[in-house]
Recover the amino acids of this structure.
């Protein structure tokens, strides 16, 4: 039986309750109230948290004591039938991502390149950077991290599908899988162990791979001399230790990461999921604060990690005068493989 491993004694003795005190979407009268509400969640009682959480994932990062508040909150919601989105939308996501045997598996040896179930990633996984691994692509619902269902408080779907996805990878007999989807890497390195699931390969974060390839290709890099804002995806909260890679990669290609209010721990989600879980008002508020912050920091480009954020924000980002681009495409431009629609920051 796949069950979340959560140490409630650690929470009972927690001196900060940072998971809730730092939450950007629920406000508490003070630490005592936040702690009392969190303890209600842990005991399986009703709590404001179960009704007000917008599923931004951030408490996973705020908790520095190794617990999984985000996963627990979504588990408790499902137990109590407090779904975060209308039932039709929740069901639509479950159906859209159902395994139907229409997956793609390339020429796999020791290493695979996972594009999750995001066609945009197939479009990025090519060229000089990926030349040794692009034939080893895997793609489809059979290889998709099911973490998206946590946004809909459907942890039963995560628990049911994750072991199947792990088995599908196991059958490939790979030693390493490079994950182009941030959320996949978080799923296999954090969510799987949190549910006691063994992962039979070494997950590789694509930014580690990117940095290594850029080092190998450094003679081809022409500094971009642009100022960029980074759109941090929600699931990146599972793997905050990987955040410094963004700056390292940008430094390497001569792009300056601007200093802004909504970055690091204080980052704002793209807000796409809020349309379903909390409504358009919150979505617009978060989106506009976020983009205005990029503009105030005088960024010329908005750099994406997750294709879902890119789809969600690109149009508005462009309307407001920033150039939207995925980090991988920016690297391809830096090595002269791809043309910049606009070559450098004017
Ligand atoms: S989840 Fe983490 S931060 Fe929150 S109360 Fe428990 S130990 Fe403290
Ligand atoms: S997931 Fe986000 S909104 Fe929900 S409790 Fe955690 S920090 Fe707050």
């Amino acid at each position: 039986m796949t069950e979340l491993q959560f140490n409630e004694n650690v929470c009972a003795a927690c001196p900060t309750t940072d998971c809730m005190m730092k939450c950007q979407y629920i406000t508490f009268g003070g630490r005592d109230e936040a702690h009392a509400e969190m303890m209600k969640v842990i005991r399986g009682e009703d709590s404001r948290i179960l009704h007000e959480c917008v599923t931004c994932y951030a408490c996973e990062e705020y908790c520095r004591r190794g617990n999984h508040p985000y996963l627990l909150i979504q588990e408790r919601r499902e137990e109590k039938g407090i779904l975060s989105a209308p039932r039709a939308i929740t069901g639509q996501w479950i159906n859209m991502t159902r395994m139907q045997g229409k997956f793609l598996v390339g020429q796999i040896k020791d290493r695979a390149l996972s594009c999750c179930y995001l066609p945009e990633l197939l479009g990025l996984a090519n060229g000089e950077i990926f030349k040794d691994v692009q034939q080893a692509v895997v793609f489809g619902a059979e290889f998709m991290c099911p973490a998206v269902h946590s946004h809909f408080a459907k942890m039963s779907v995560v628990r049911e599908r994750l072991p199947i996805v792990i088995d599908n990878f196991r059958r490939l007999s790979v030693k390493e899988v490079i994950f182009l989807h941030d959320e996949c890497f978080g799923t296999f390195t954090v969510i799987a162990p949190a549910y006691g699931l063994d992962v039979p390969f070494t997950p590789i974060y694509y930014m580690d791979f990117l940095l290594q390839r850029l080092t190998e290709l450094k003679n081809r890099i022409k500094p971009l001399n642009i100022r960029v804002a980074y759109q941090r995806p929600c699931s990146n909260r599972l793997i905050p230790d990987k955040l410094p890679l963004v700056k390292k990669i940008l430094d390497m290609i001569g792009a300056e990461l601007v200093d802004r209010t909504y970055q690091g721990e204080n980052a704002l989600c793209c807000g796409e999921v809020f349309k379903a879980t909390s409504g358009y008002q919150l979505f617009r508020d978060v989106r506009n604060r976020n983009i205005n912050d990029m503009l105030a920091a005088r960024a010329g480009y908005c750099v994406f990690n997750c294709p879902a954020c890119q789809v969600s924000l690109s149009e508005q980002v462009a309307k407001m005068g920033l150039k939207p681009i995925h980090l991988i495409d920016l690297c391809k431009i830096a090595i002269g493989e791809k043309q910049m629609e606009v070559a450098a920051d004017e």
